[in-house]
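Reviewers of the previous submission asked for a worked example of the structure-prediction workflow described in the proposal, so we include one complete record here. The input consisted solely of the amino acid sequence. No template or homolog information was supplied to the procedure at any stage.
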Amino acid sequence: MKFLTFDYRDQTYYGVKVKREESAWILPKLFEAFGDDENYPKTLLEGISKYHTLDFQEHVRKLVEKAQQSGKADKYKAPFNEITFRAPVTPPNNVIAFGRNYKSHAEELNNEVHSLYVFTKAATSLAGDEETIPNHQDITSQLDYEGELGVVIGKRAEKIQSSMALDYIYGYTIINDITARDLQKAHHQAFLSKSLKGGCPMGPFIVTKDELPNPEQTSIVTKVNGKIRQDGSTKEMVLKLDELIAEVSKYVTLEPGDVIATGTPSGVGAGMKPPQYLQPGDEVRISINGIGTLTTYIGK
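From that input alone, the workflow returned the following structure tokens.
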């Protein structure tokens, strides 16, 4: 299943993509019309938190079946051309991110490959698919992109073993780790330079694990204004998904809905010769096979 959060007719909803249609089932409306739980989840984060992963999918599947059989299916759908995508979830913690987790990316920026280089991005930096974000030229001249696979946690994880870590994954999404390179260098740390408003585009969907059975063997392609900049694969990750999750859980209690950005392959603007940073009016499209494409526009 592909879950999303969106604005539709002046309200914010969450839903699941309709199969073979460019539209979403509006899940709160399905729960109200066909569910038997008055305390149904009002947000996707509540849905992930309230139910075990498979239980939630089964609830949704049954609701969709009832809607299809009602003869009024369109009443419960929102066409994609009438919605505004939002980040699928706002995680309980900041977005947790791994840097230098692709050897080629570390080398293009003349950084050493570390076994553990972790930072966070403020939740206020989240942005949705097709969103226009500020160009931030008042504080940076080196705005850059990083296409990444995001892992969404499905249940509380605290000091878990790597052998069990994959069981804690709810699904996957796409993240654009927008970074002000000059600020990152000047500050000698990553938080502020990576937490600018709109600095964490995410989406368009969270796909459940069954939709992406080989997350460590999938492509990541980033295009700027239609030209390929990054063309990599998650198989290049230094620390694999089970290692990332287990390592973070040693120090941070991960909650359902938390998101981990797993690093980026080579091809960022700062690594080009000469460097090519994002400019007002630019379009960035990040595609991950099995999830979709996340599009971000840089404001003029």
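The two ends are 35 Å apart (CA to CA). We consider this example representative of the routine output the project will generate in years two and three.
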